[in-house]
Design brief:
The chain is α/β, with parallel strands linked by helices and 177 residues long. It has four helices and eight strands; from the N terminus they run βββαβαβαβαββ. Helix 3 (110-122) packs across helix 4 (136-145).
């Protein structure tokens, strides 16, 4: 599938499962398992690896003048959530590529609320925004609720209801270019 992003001013990227994933499972298991108590490694950062080609994709989008936003669901309170998200982005050496880094509450509409707020603050129309993620509920439905287009990364754990024929998916992040 060809993905047209020429008219996008801002692209929101989900963190876990889209920008990075746990090295051990890649995309065979939802990535949030790594943070659950009892399974969480002492230093979970060293278990995270970048999704193939994400660095090059982000650099090219940045060169084109696209605003890049890292946005991830996080269960902790805002200050702690932001701390962990910023640590992940910095640890994976993505901090220079993102214009903004945000966390959202762990609800299906959480990312949508953040997206709507950012677009309003920056005076960017919804039609000029895109969310790239890996979850039907937390990415696609959240973006759809606020009227923003969403692309989902096809993974082994991605489940989409059969009646949702209009959902756009990509196999590789290079398809954004």
């Amino acid at each position: 599938m060809s993905v047209v992003i020429k008219n996008k001013t801002i692209i929101f990227f989900d963190g876990d499962g889209t920008l990075w994933y746990p090295r051990r499972t890649k995309w065979t298991k939802k990535p949030n398992w790594i943070y659950r108590e009892g399974q969480k490694p002492k230093d979970y950062l060293k278990h995270l690896v970048l999704t193939p080609s994400i660095g090059g994709v982000l650099k090219k989008l940045k060169q084109r003048g696209v605003l890049l936003v890292a946005l991830s669901i996080h269960p902790h309170k805002r200050i702690e959530a932001d701390f962990h998200m910023n640590n992940k982005v910095k640890h994976l050496k993505l901090d220079a590529l993102f214009d903004f880094i945000y966390t959202a509450r762990p609800y299906p509409w959480g990312k949508g609320k953040v997206i709507a707020s950012v677009l309003k603050k920056k005076k960017i129309p919804k039609s000029r925004a895109l969310l790239v993620g890996d979850s039907y509920v937390y990415d696609y439905l959240s973006a759809k609720k606020v009227g923003v287009e969403c692309l989902l990364l096809r993974t082994a754990y991605l489940t989409v209801p059969p009646e949702e024929k209009s959902i756009k998916t990509i196999k590789n992040l290079k398809e954004l270019l």
